[in-house]
Amino acid sequence: MDGSFLMEDPQLAEPTTVVADIQDLLLDTPDVEAFLEELARHSASIFSTPGNEVYCGITLMRRRSAGTVASSGERAKMLDELQYKFADGPCLHACREITQVHIPDFAKDTTWPEYNELVTEHGIRSVLAVPFPLSDDATRAGLNLYSEHANAFDQAAVQRVNDYVQQASKGLRLAVLIAEHSQTATNLRAAMESRTVIDVATGVIIAQNRCTQQEAMELIKKASSNRNVKLRVVAQAIVESAGGGQVQTYFK
Length: 252
Prior knowledge:
alpha+beta, five-stranded antiparallel sheet, 8 helices, elongated
């Protein structure tokens, strides 16, 4: 036997079910990193069949620098990282050129000879790498599926994986958008908290020195510059020295 294996129809349901699965992953994970890890495990699970375990890695490329940000397990991560040593390979090419790369049998492929030889030594015979369609031109990402069998991904399986990636990319873009909004909210909250303690410190200085608000603010800025610390740190020290304790900002 040459190790060939035609992938049975995996339990990849209708697009609406795929969308529902992705939505569940979004709801059940706290951040983008956790979402990607679950997506990698979920992808490996739905494309694996009896007798053919599929390993999944997700490659992220930013400013030509690539890395595996999620994987279905240590083996998938190792398989992704093998090609990073050569700075090229099916997954990197898929991300870089935003095009699908399918190698049915590494033993017969000559595209990346050194990488092919190395990955074959690790027992892998086929790979399917499909890029995520993302709106950010500076960021590229791809789903990488590996199998120990040659010809593991037939034409129908390749189409199913592409359809799946199209649906998953919507969830990925939403996860990134949620993370960006969450970070914006966190930054806004921090800015408001800083503003609160600075305002209280200004009031303390006005009361103690009988000066104007502008003069009080200048004193805080001068102390911040001389000590090379942030305004908020100086302001908090002023409040605490006056017996005010930790200043809290209340959000409704």
